[in-house]
Amino acid sequence: QVQLVESGGGLVQAGGSLRLSCAASVPSFSSYGMGWFRQAPGKEREFVGAISRSGDRQDYADSVKGRFTNSRDNGKKTVYLRMNSLQPEDTAVYYCAASQALRGVVPGRSPNYNYWGQGTQVTVSS
């Protein structure tokens, strides 16, 4: 059973930064591409970013490109999302997700991932 546990969410003022973490309990973490999604109240879950198995390739939604950065530490079985220049429209529950993926391939933008975390709330005040 794969478990993903997000942490690092909270309340921050506009222009501030947060770093989310997602810790995985899985024997072969390095065989999974990882993604981040978010869901604001009344809206559908949307893609934020994704990172390949080794971390050498990444993808970002246009709305966060240049502000958010994915990284991962396979030794710690953890993926991170650094979020800078946060804006009120970034307010949402953020989810990490794991997808079995080929080496060098970034998981896709649709939510067809194998495993999901429970989410962590990020609130940005204006």
Structure write-up:
- The protein has strands at residues 3-7, 10-13, 18-25, 32-39, 46-51, 58-60, 68-73, 78-83, 92-100, 115-116, 120-125.
- The strands form 2 sheets. Strands 2, 4, 5, 6, 9, 10 and 11 form a 7-stranded mixed sheet that branches. Strands 1-3-8-7 form a 4-stranded antiparallel sheet, with no helix packed on it.
- The model has no long low-confidence stretch (mean pLDDT 96).
- By secondary structure, it is an all-beta fold.
State the major sheet.
Answer: 7 strands, mixed
Shape: globular
Q: What is the string of SSEs from the N terminus onward?
A: EEEEEEEEEEE
Number of strands: 11
> In percent, how helical is the residue content?
under 10%
Terminal Cα span: 40 Å
- What is the number of helical segments per DSSP (H or I, 4+ residues)? 0
Quaternary state of this entry equals: single chain
> Rg from C-alpha positions?
13 Å
Low-confidence stretches: none
Average pLDDT for all residues: 96
Based on helices, strands and strand pairing, what is the structural class? mainly beta
Taken as a percent bin, the fraction of beta residues is over 45%
Helix/strand layout:
Blueprint: E1 3-7, E2 10-13, E3 18-25, E4 32-39, E5 46-51, E6 58-60, E7 68-73, E8 78-83, E9 92-100, E10 115-116, E11 120-125
Parallel strand pairs: 2-11
Antiparallel strand pairs: 1-3, 3-8, 4-5, 4-9, 5-6, 7-8, 9-10, 9-11
Brief descriptors of the model:
single chain; 126 residues; mainly beta; 7-stranded mixed beta sheet; 4-stranded antiparallel beta sheet; 11 strands; 50% strand
